[in-house]
Amino acid sequence: MRIGFALPQFGALAHHPEDVARFARQAEDFGAASLWVGDRLLDPVEPTVGYAGADTIPPEFRAALDPFAVLAAAAAVTERVQLGSNVINAPWYPPSTLARALTTIDALSGGRLLVGLGTGWSPEEYEAVNVPMAERGRRLDETLDVLTAWWTANPVEHRGEHWTVPASYVDIKPASRPHPPVYLAAFAPAALRRVARRADGWLPIAVPPAPFDPEADVVRPMELIRETAGREGRDPAALDAILRVNPYAEASVEDIATVLARAEAEAGVGHAFVDLIYLAKDVDQALDLAQRILDRANGD
Prior knowledge:
Shape: globular
CATH architecture: Alpha-Beta Barrel
Strand content: 15-25%
Helix content: 25-40%
Number of helices: 9
CATH class: Alpha Beta
Number of domains: 1
Oligomer: single chain
Radius of gyration: 19 Å
CATH superfamily: Luciferase-like domain
C-alpha cells in the first residue's frame, strides 16, 4: 500500500507554518507516498451543524492555513510525493480561480497533484463566502465542467447557471495529461453517482479506534460506483479509492496500522493517507508518528 500523511495545516501545527516545508521534506525522506491538505474556513461560536455528526466543531479547526499555499510550499521542497486535497470545498470558489490555482500547483510539482473535491457541511462557512449552500451540488457539477474546459481546451469558454468564462486564451496547462486526477468525497447515493459519472475515484474515510468495516465502508460503495460507471459507458476498473484515515486522539499506531492493513487486504485499497491533526502537538511529534506508522505498516 502507498501511505501518505496530512500536512501540518490545522490546530496546534498551524501555528508554525514555517514547519510545513520541513514536514514535507522529511516525510518524503521517510518514504511517504503523498501529502495532503483539507479546507476549513471557520469554527463558528454557535455552529448550526457540528462536525461528523456531533453538536460541536473540534477546537483544532480554530487555526487553519490556506490549502493552496500549503500545497505550493510542499511542491517547492519535494520531488517524488504526490500532493492531494481531501478535500477542497469546490463551491466556495469561482471555478476559474480554482482552476488557475490547481493548475499552478500541478505545474510547480511537475504533475504530482491529486485533486480531491467536496461540498463541505458548514452553513456558516457558506454564509462567509456568500454562496447559497442549497446550490452546492449544482455548483460542484458546474465547477467540474469548468475545470475540464480549463485543462483541456484553448481558448476556454463556459456559460452556465452560476458562472461565465468568456472565450479566453489560457496557455498554462497542467503538467499532468490530460489533467490531474479528480477524486470526490461522497456518501449520499446521488453523490456516489456523481463519482461514477465525473471523477477518477472516491475518497472514503476511516476513524480509528472506531470500528472499521472494509466491506461496508469501502467495498460496497465502490461496487455501486463501478456499476454506475459501467452503465455510463465508462471503464469501471479505471476508478479507485484513496482512503483517509483520521484517527481520534486515543488511537494508537497499532490501531492505524490495523486499519491500513485491513483496507488493503479486505477492500483492495492501494493508497491511503493518515491525518495526524488530533495526535500531534507539534511537527516533531507528527514526524515521529509518521515514521512509526510507516515502519509498522511495512512490518519493520
